[in-house]
Amino acid sequence: MLMASCLAHPPGSGMCPVNSSSSGTSTGSLWQKGSLYGKPFGRFVSTASQGGGQEVTISSGLSNFVHHGMIFVPVGSTYGPALFDVETLRGGSAWGAGTYAGATGARMPTALELDVAEHQGREFAKVAKRLKVTS
């Protein structure tokens, strides 16, 4: 059974894509049983550009998890000053790690973007451990 999850979602015009949204609505039996209540989840994204809706993509998908009573574990300010650096092109925010793939999807994540993603994973695992949750 799913106990803790950190999910990636590509945006669809800044919104959670239909196939991701419908997977949330297909978990009714888990919702009725309360199977996911109190379990942590996190989100990370990839968009084509800076205006691609990284934060709104993460926030627009929260309702499916909240209905289950799951606990959102964002990056927050735990990464430190580099997360607030506006001089370096990088995806992600306090909502979750991210990258810019470019219009063709050819751009690869930078070392900073990968480091933020790894940091998110480590911090997520710490929270799951404190909650005594297994994956």
From TrEMBL:
Which cellular components does GO assign to this protein? membrane
What species was this sequence derived from? Apatococcus fuscideae
Q: Which InterPro entries match?
A: Flavoprotein-like_sf (IPR029039)
Superkingdom assignment: Eukaryota
Q: What is this protein called?
A: Uncharacterized protein
The record's annotation in SUPFAM superfamilies points to: Flavoproteins
Q: Which family does it belong to?
A: Belongs to the WrbA family.
The record's GO molecular-function terms, alphabetically, read: NAD(P)H dehydrogenase (quinone) activity
Q: Which Gene3D superfamilies match?
A: 3.40.50.360
